[in-house]
Amino acid sequence: MSHNIVRIEALSTENYLIEVEAPHVAERFQAGQFVIIRIHERGERIPLTVADVDPRKRTVTLIFQVVGKTTMELSTLKPGDTLINCVGPLGNPSEIEKFGRVICVGGGTGIACILPVVRALVNAGNEVISIIGARTESLLILEDEIREASTEIYIATDDGSKGHHGFVTEVLKGLLEKYKRQEEVNRVIIIGPPQMMKAAADVTRINKIKTIASLNTIMIDGTGMCGGCRVFLDGEMKLTCIDGPEFDAHKVNFDDVISRLSMFKEKELLAVKHFCKHKQKKAGRQ
What we know:
By secondary structure, this protein is α/β, with parallel strands linked by helices. It has 2 domains: about 5-90, Translation factors (Elongation Factor Tu (Ef-tu), domain 3); about 100-260, Rossmann fold, CATH 3.40.50.80. It is built from 9 helices and 16 strands. The protein has helices at about 25, 70-75, 110-125, 145-150, 170-180, 195-205, 240-245, 255-260, 265-285; strands at about 5-10, 15-20, 35-40, 45-55, 60-65, 80-85, 85-90, 100-105, 125-135, 150-155, 165, 185-190, 210-215, 230-235, 235-240, 245-250. The strands form 3 sheets. It has a 7-stranded antiparallel sheet, sandwiched between helices. It has a 7-stranded mixed sheet with strand order 11-10-9-8-12-13-16, with helices on both faces. A two-stranded antiparallel ribbon has the order 14-15. Strand 1 (about 5-10) and strand 2 form a beta hairpin. The relative contact order is 0.13.
């Protein structure tokens, strides 16, 4: 079954939004879950973040960053093109209940993943403080949507072009100090680059606050068969696709996650180079 692309737009120089017809996902998706897509028969399977669904239109809105050959190819598609697969929803939904005050931290494309979680937490009666960040203002995504969904929002950019000049973890640390003197923070949810999640987990560990990290590991089938998405929690192996994607951040071996994500970087660069060369040749023949 192919899936028609309804809309695709660039959110920044690196980040794209793509809306796809996928009734089976739109009807069943819950915050925290994801999909695996494939562009064509010879395409790679990749997990993508679901930022939103529209059960009436029977579509899902996916956000991705161009980091390799497949995401680069995906960014070249147009409305009317199709994906051969959009499998999901996969993974376990976020734990949503009335916790009290929750801080949600999203970095990079993790902002897209945090959006449905923020909405679900607010609907459950929580006070949700969102912290979102990127390297620079031009790479910041979904700011208006996060602002509308949250009780309060803070922004950080590495270069200081918007909001706090520095990292989201610095904003998190400041907020935890603030609420330590007033009222407690009941839970922290972190989604983004593994280096950011590791740093945020270190901050909340000191404060002894329950912290949940949503992991985006190397993933192939999304059903637990391949073992490529394995992660270690206090030495015990888990599979991100069926046991996660959310885990207790204080138990995750982030050093192993970071190491595994860099394993195929050289091959990915070669794939991108080959794809660009093929595109140039194809353009020359037209």
